[in-house]
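Section 3.1: Structural characterization of target chains.
Under the original work plan, the team committed to producing a structural model for every single-chain target entering the pipeline before any wet-lab resources were allocated. The record below documents one such target. The sequence was received from the expression subgroup and is listed exactly as submitted; it comprises 217 residues.
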Amino acid sequence: MTISVFLLDDHEIVRRGIAQLLEGEDDITVVGEAGSAAQALARIPALRPDVAVLDVRLPDGDGVTVCRDIRSAVAPPPACLMLTSYADDEALFGAIMAGASGYLLKQVTGIDLVGAVRTIAAGGSLLDTKATAAVLERLRKGDEPADPRYASLSPQERRILHLIADGLTNRQIGAEMFLAEKTVKNYVSSLLHKLGFARRTEAAVYAAELRKDGSAR
């Protein structure tokens, strides 16, 4: 049986490389691609792939949110494999909660990526057992932030909030997270709205207080 795969990455050269790698296998075919969260959410329901390979960081959102949304909107839902350039505990937590089947760094070898696609297509999981256990323990202890405003933020927004608390400008945040300054500005506007603040200084003070009482995760 051929495994149908959808690719989401904002870098075209990365998508082409992964597509070429997967298309070289007799049992895998790439049925669609997207460079943004909006494109992926529009295309995946119509294509209904077996596997969705999703970049965690995107210019208009994050792959974790895409994973959660398509798994609730598509039946049967595709198995989601998260790809990221950097290890991020918050994104890993979000991926597990969103129902992802795997979480890999982009430094993975081509052979391992192909194997990962086959594994999750067959119903397997590539999530580290220790990481999964840590998430379950966190849930058991009720360590999710009590403030529903903070809980409403996406992993990307939470990271930007804490970088604001560190005193970084939008340009500096963009350089840190490999995002366009305009994209960071949009994220800041979104998180300020969710938190009910008018100024970033208020958000910085709020994040600092979260750190003090250990509510931020």
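The chain has a mean pLDDT of 85.
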